[in-house]
């Protein structure tokens, strides 16, 4: 029995009928019967509590709540034909898709049934004023084995295609990832017609070695080497006629495919056999709609494309293959026309060669200035080029061996996560015992080839400023970076080294607002962002090996007033560990 406003509510579990009845004392604010899928007993309490909270939010006029219960376990999977230990969510690999709408509140109760501590991060979700939910080791204590923790995050003022994955201990190499889509609200126009259906496509390189074996390689100072294959939604077609379709299409209809590279290392090129892709969204931004026969999707990046079933009715391949690697690895999946007859052609479209092609493709991506994203105002109403830059931070990546062990660094510092998360140390006022701010200068040192410092790497950045971050890549491999808590304007990528005069080559009008940046070999890239989101935010290499061995840092942006206007209070049930475990909680913001 529960009460919502002045409405009396009774929720009854009818296990034999697999449904819940809601009986109202008076009024009618929800349907009287809600059908649900069969669930385990563990989930029933959460569903019932969730329904009460949903009713409460309806009475109060809050944004809707979506509730999820995840049981995270190990299981045997064989995506490349070799049995190996994978990480499953509710028995699934990949994990379940999160289907949400702008401003929804997501409540995700995670039961960790692994034998190791666990965290999940939500790649591309900005967590406005709420880095408490970011799910990386610098902000959160991990969920201990045999326990559970509930993430509460809001997809505030965002639309687009994203994904989640485990951020701890190289767990991503075993799975645990899934799609996260944020649909536009009905009152916001979308710059294309509604598709017939909406599909999530998760592509990744894949290792047949377990994540624990790969982690031992890195801990011993070795590289994890090259992957053994590529997967599309956890599979690759055998091509012997036994493959079931990944997706189906009705002739003449148009479909939306949300494509994300959730892999460990490799950029991947994706193409649809015999079909063009119309790019409509890139990492949360509507873009100018161009047609492509193939797209390079770098690690951590996501695209949304429209594909029309306008070819002969039969089966076709969707193909993903590695880029910038000595040996090209390829995965295939079946797309089937509903009235189709005939196997796909064995002639697989080839991927382009070289990184110059990829750089040129990047230059075709443009912000759709007239389209509305999560808010009614057009994207182009934000004139980023007219804002004065208040600080320039230049980051140069490097690789070295320290005492015979492989390390990656930014500006000569290779990051390590302390036992006490950086955010908690800062919040409890003991940061001086855990780390030092600004251990790297805004300009990289001249002697980057010298020994690197292995320590927490934290930059202090002033709230509500407009800053420029330059990435320079002196190495022979492509670099891909992601910044939590933010989207930024990727205004330029060019060969050579950056100088202030290079600002003349920036895109001043329609650079895409996004959350990943690629830096090609011997090139630089420039991003612009407004530091308006208080929190401790991770800037990391999306190459798993590089990140694990230090190529990351944290950006601390603090509220000058310590006000709820700028940042939410630490949740009452926030996990505590390290030096803050037994400390009294600081007074809440007001």
Can you walk me through this structure?
InterPro entries: Cu-oxidase-like_N (IPR011707), Cu-oxidase_2nd (IPR001117), Cu-oxidase_C (IPR011706), Cu-oxidase_fam (IPR045087), Cupredoxin (IPR008972), CuRO_1_AAO-like (IPR034273), CuRO_2_AO-like (IPR034271). GO terms for molecular function: copper ion binding; oxidoreductase activity. This is L-ascorbate oxidase-like protein. Belongs to the multicopper oxidase family. Keywords: Glycoprotein. The chain has 590 residues and is mainly beta. The chain is 8% helix and 36% strand. The chain has five helices and 37 strands. The strands form eight sheets. Strands 13, 14, 16, 18, 19, 20 and 22 form a seven-stranded mixed beta sheet that branches. Strands 26-25-30-35-32-33 form a six-stranded mixed beta sheet, with no helix packed on it. A five-stranded mixed beta sheet has the order 15-24-23-17-21, with no helix packed on it. The longest helix is centred in the N-terminal third of the chain and has 20 residues. The N terminus is likely disordered.
């Amino acid at each position: 029995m529960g009460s919502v406003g002045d409405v009396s509510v009774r929720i009854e579990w009818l296990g034999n009928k697999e449904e819940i009845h809601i009986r109202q004392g008076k009024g009618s604010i929800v349907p009287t019967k809600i059908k649900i899928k069969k669930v385990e007993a563990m989930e029933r309490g959460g569903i019932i509590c969730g329904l009460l909270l949903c009713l409460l939010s309806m009475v109060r006029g809050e944004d809707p709540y979506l509730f999820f219960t995840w049981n995270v376990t190990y299981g045997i999977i064989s995506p490349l034909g070799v049995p190996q230990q994978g990480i499953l969510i509710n028995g699934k690999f990949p994990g379940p898709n999160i289907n949400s709408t702008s401003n929804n509140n997501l409540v995700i109760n995670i039961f960790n049934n692994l034998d190791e501590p666990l965290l999940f991060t939500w790649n591309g979700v900005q967590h406005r004023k709420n880095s408490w939910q970011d799910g990386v080791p610098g902000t959160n204590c991990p969920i201990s084995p045999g326990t559970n923790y509930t993430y509460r995050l809001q997809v505030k003022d965002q639309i687009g295609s994203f994904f989640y994955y485990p951020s701890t201990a190289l767990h991503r190499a075993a799975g645990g990832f899934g799609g996260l889509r944020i649909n536009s609200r009905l009152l916001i126009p979308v710059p294309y017609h509604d598709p017939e259906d909406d599909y999530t496509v998760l592509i990744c390189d894949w290792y047949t070695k377990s994540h624990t074996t790969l982690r031992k390689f890195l801990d011993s100072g070795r590289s994890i080497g090259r992957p053994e294959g590529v997967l599309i939604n956890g599979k690759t077609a055998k091509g012997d006629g036994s493959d079931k379709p990944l997706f189906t299409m009705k002739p003449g209809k148009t479909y939306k495919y949300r494509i994300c590279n959730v892999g460990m290392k490799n950029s991947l090129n994706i193409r649809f056999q015999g079909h063009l892709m119309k790019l409509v969204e890139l990492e949360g931004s509507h873009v100018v709609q161009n047609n492509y026969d193939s797209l390079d999707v770098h690690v951590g990046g996501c695209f949304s494309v429209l594909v029309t079933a306008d070819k002969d009715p039969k089966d076709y391949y969707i193909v993903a293959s590695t880029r910038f690697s000595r040996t090209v690895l390829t995965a295939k999946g079946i797309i089937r026309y509903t009235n189709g007859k005939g196997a796909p052609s064995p002639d697989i479209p080839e991927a382009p060669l070289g990184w110059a092609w990829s750089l040129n493709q990047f230059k075709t991506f443009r912000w759709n200035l007239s389209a509305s994203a999560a808010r009614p105002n057009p994207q182009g109403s934000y004139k980023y080029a007219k804002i004065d830059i208040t600080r320039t931070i230049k980051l140069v990546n490097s690789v070295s061996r320290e005492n015979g062990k492989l390390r990656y660094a930014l500006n000569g510092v290779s990051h390590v996560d302390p036992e006490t998360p950086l955010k908690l140390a800062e919040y409890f006022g003991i940061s001086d015992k855990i780390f030092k701010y600004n251990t790297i200068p805004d300009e990289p040192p001249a002697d980057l080839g010298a020994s690197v410092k292995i320590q927490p790497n934290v930059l202090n950045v002033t709230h509500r400023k407009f800053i420029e971050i330059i990435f320079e890549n002196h190495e022979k491999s492509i670099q891909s970076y992601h910044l939590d808590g933010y989207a930024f304007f990727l205004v330029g990528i060019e060969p050579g080294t950056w100088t202030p005069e290079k600002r003349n080559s920036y895109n001043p009008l329609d650079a895409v607002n996004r959350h990943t940046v690629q830096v090609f070999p011997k090139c630089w890239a420039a991003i612009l962002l407004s530091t308006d989101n208080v929190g401790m935010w991770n800037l990391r290499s999306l190459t798993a090996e590089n990140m694990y061995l230090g190529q990351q840092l944290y950006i601390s942006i603090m509220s000058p007033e310590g006000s709820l206007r700028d940042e939410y209070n630490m949740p009452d049930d926030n996990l505590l560990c390290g030096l803050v475990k037994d400390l009294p909680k600081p007074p809440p913001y007001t």
